[in-house]
Design a protein that fits this description.
Length: 408
């Protein structure tokens, strides 16, 4: 397989990138990044504590089951078919929660459903056509796709706060479902070609044979545990972002702005991260973009009550979380056989969801125990350091060479 030039990659590739960016930006990630806006309204209506709601929100760990399954489905049936089915199920579930949920059990079941099927609009699915199509500019393309989530998370929270103020958290859930159906689905239908990828690549055709030997590869586990550590750090912060910021002395509307600043940081992290991965040693880039912006957790820890510092810290954490998306997808596509990308990346992300669940549960429970978020912030900083060190152990082929499928 040859490496195409810039013109041939982007001639069809811009449509793939734009369609996947809109699909990702209007999918389940938008609910994940804005869920903290619903925490207090749900707690007030259903009489639940933040710790209890963190347990419910952690049920998105069903994505740990959905990621390898849905990732494998994208290898077999292609991205578009998987995206349509999963988006329809998630939107229907969100509307059903808005209309029918009258207690924490119903909410818990709905969140579990969203976690499993929402994988169809996450990086597990949307990065497959991008990783297959791009070689020379893979990092930049992955970064641009990830920007879709950043842009919607910048624009939507203030509007969603207005909807929630007028119609409650139920109205917010309906609004999120409408966004995915009205924007995401048409974008994929109109922009992505029937078999998105390199001409003659056969994407959507006969899949690679089922092969789980990558579970025996050391680098798979290095990347997977690094991703788990990073998820542990950022998921807890995102799940409690609005109340965490309000405890720094910021009002609810300003907390919504903090979410937008977090997404602005994501935007920078994803674009800059993608470019850097294409031009410098990916391992050193990954370490720098994990540790440096991740120090935002230390700012939150040591500047309690300083509102401007909290806003800066949230933006820095967003940079790390944004770059994380590029890093994991890039390392998977570069280190392993891209024909089995959906299966392997799905396994990496699926196991990583246990880190997300641990972070979500831990942030809420530690707050209930200590009455503040200091312990959660300290754990997050240590988890990012561990993830960065693990990234250094991963071996990548020389730039321009094809990845090995089963290298030990």
């Amino acid at each position: 397989m040859t490496t195409p030039g810039t013109d041939s990659e982007w001639r069809l590739g811009w449509r793939i990138v734009l369609g996947c960016a809109l699909a990702s930006g209007t999918g389940v990630a938008l609910l994940f990044f804005t869920f903290s806006l619903f925490l207090l309204p749900i707690a007030n209506e259903l009489g639940a504590t933040r710790g209890e709601l963190s347990l419910i929100q952690a049920l998105v760990v069903t994505a740990a089951l959905g990621s390898p399954i849905i990732g494998r489905m994208t290898d077999i049936y292609g991205f578009k078919a998987v995206f349509y089915v999963c988006t329809a199920i998630v939107a229907t579930t969100q509307i059903a929660l808005a209309l029918l949920a009258d207690g924490v059990l119903g909410l818990a079941f709905g969140i579990a459903m969203v976690g499993f099927f929402g994988v169809g609009s996450t990086a597990v699915a949307v990065t497959r056509p991008v990783s297959w199509h791009f070689r020379e500019h893979r990092g930049k393309a992955l970064g641009l796709v990830a920007v879709g989530v950043s842009l919607t998370t910048i624009m939507v929270p203030p509007l969603l706060q207005l909807v929630t103020d007028s119609f409650g958290w139920r109205g917010g859930f309906v609004a999120l479902a409408a966004i995915s159906l009205v924007v995401g689905v048409p974008a994929v239908a109109l922009l992505l070609p029937p078999t998105p990828g390199r001409a003659g690549s056969g994407i959507g055709g006969k899949p690679a044979a089922q092969d789980w030997s990558f579970f025996k590869v050391r680098d798979f586990w290095g990347l997977t545990i690094a991703n788990l550590c990073m998820n542990l750090a950022t998921a807890g912060a995102v799940s409690q972002m609005s109340p965490m910021i309000q405890e720094e002395g910021i009002s609810a509307p300003m907390a919504a702005l903090a979410l937008s600043l977090f997404a602005s940081g994501q935007f920078v992290g994803r674009l800059v991260g993608g470019w850097l991965l294409d031009h410098f040693d990916p391992r050193l880039v990954a370490v720098a973009l994990t540790i440096l912006p991740g120090s935002g957790f230390l700012i939150l820890l040591f500047t309690a009550g300083a509102a401007p510092a909290a806003l800066v810290a949230v933006t820095m954490i967003g940079v790390q979380q944004g770059a994380e998306h590029d890093i994991v997808a890039y390392f998977t596509a570069s280190r392993f056989d891209v024909a089995r990308y959906g299966t392997i990346f799905g396994a990496v992300v699926g196991i990583g969801w246990f880190g997300s669940a641990g972070g979500i549960i831990g942030a809420g429970q530690l707050h209930d125990i200590f009455g503040n978020y200091s312990a959660a912030q300290a754990v997050a900083a240590l988890a990012l350091l561990a993830g960065a060190l693990l990234i250094l152990t991963i071996r990548l082929p020389a730039r321009g060479q094809l990845a090995e499928s089963n290298a030990a």
